[in-house]
Amino acid sequence: MRRPAFQRWTAILCAGLFSALLSWPGPAGAFQDKLEPTRERLDTLRKCLWPEGNTAVDGLRQGLLGWHQTGSDQPGAGGLGTTGRQQPGDPIDSLRTQFINPPPREYLDTLDQDIRACTFAQKSQDKAVRQDVMNSVIRDINLKSDDCRKFGMGRKVPVRVSTLRGSAQDHGWEVFYKWSGASTFQGDEVRAPQLTSPANLELPPGEYVIRAEKKNPGGLVVRVDPVKIVVGLKSAVDVQLPIP
User: Fold this and answer.
1) Rounded CA gap, 161 and 212, in Å?
2) Which of 134, 151, 168 is the last residue of a domain?
3) Any residues with CB less than 8 A from the CB of 36 and at least 6 apart, and which?
4) Which of 60, 174, 214, 227 minimizes the number of CB atoms within 10 Å of its CB?
5) Which tens digit of pLDDT belongs to each residue from 65-108?
């Protein structure tokens, strides 16, 4: 039975509109371009970690890009396939993922840090050092992946740092933090923009070492012992540093 003419024209118009949306070089295409730096970093990490931890990167890829795994891109398939990246499952998913916002700049910086650590490990002649650094990268990627599953796409986590003398706030302390990494490869130390108490930060998910210091009235620098914290898997992190 033939469909009425208006139904045929409606189907044709809908198909044409859908095709135009997929090829439209406007905002959708712009979002697609913005995801390319994230995709490139994940591809680099996956190649570097193979075979120690490519499944960790696959999990994070799902969180940051939302791509389906197909064909030889599946974990354990022995490579990255013909494209070196995962492919969208169908046209609807392809259109949907064009509107995913990329992670913030600070998040991408931590992926660059993982790449540097992984490259360092590959060049090391010490098997124990190599494995230790590789494990630190995999832990970082897994933490980011788990945070994506719990809170959505890549994010920065609010971190509140207080310095306490006994139970009372002690103000005016400088706060420093760095990616903890491995014993032989750690991130550069960064000074928080605010003094305590509190100092408020926004950090990508990861393991960090954090400390504080302050000059006493005599000009000597007093330092608080560094502590290791895990940022991620919670909506926010509250850190309390006891003053000696």
Assistant:
1) 9
2) 151
3) none
4) 227
5) 875 443 333 333 333 333 334 444 444 444 445 567 889 999 99
